[in-house]
Design brief:
Blueprint: E1 10-15, H1 16-23, E2 29-34, E3 40-44, E4 47-51, E5 58-61, E6 64-68, H2 69-82, E7 83-90, E8 96-103, E9 106-110
Helix pairs in contact: 1-2
Length: about 120
């Protein structure tokens, strides 16, 4: 199956366990925003979390997208058991691509959250 042709506006690479830890503290609707100060902001209805420059291995672009927390938690719950590092790519109103990079290479797409 060929990969989806999507122009992603932003991406970041970080440890899968750290992303899962931040996501599991939030609820329901989920917005990810990459800010200008090299931090990734995770915002939910009941709070927010930050993956700062110390936790990021790489970051590029700026974007904000909304995704279902339940889908993301399911994906990261399993990915963190098989991969240490993941690359997350997304754009507003576009699917998110999550690529597990070490030690296995697995790619998952998550549809954007639409009200």
């Amino acid at each position: 199956m060929p990969p989806l042709k999507v122009d992603f506006a932003a991406s970041f690479t970080a440890p899968a366990n750290e992303i899962y830890r931040i996501m599991s503290s939030l609820a329901d609707e989920y917005t990810i925003k990459i800010s200008v100060d090299d931090s990734v902001w995770f915002k939910g209805r009941n709070g927010e979390g930050v993956l700062d420059s110390q936790g990021l291995l790489d970051k590029s672009g700026r974007a904000e997208g909304s995704y279902s927390i339940s889908y993301l938690l399911d994906v990261f719950k399993h990915i963190r058991n098989v991969a240490r590092i993941v690359k997350v790519e997304f754009a507003e109103n576009k699917p998110m691509r999550i690529t597990a990079m070490e030690p296995v290479n697995v790619t998952v797409y998550i549809a954007p959250y639409v009200e």
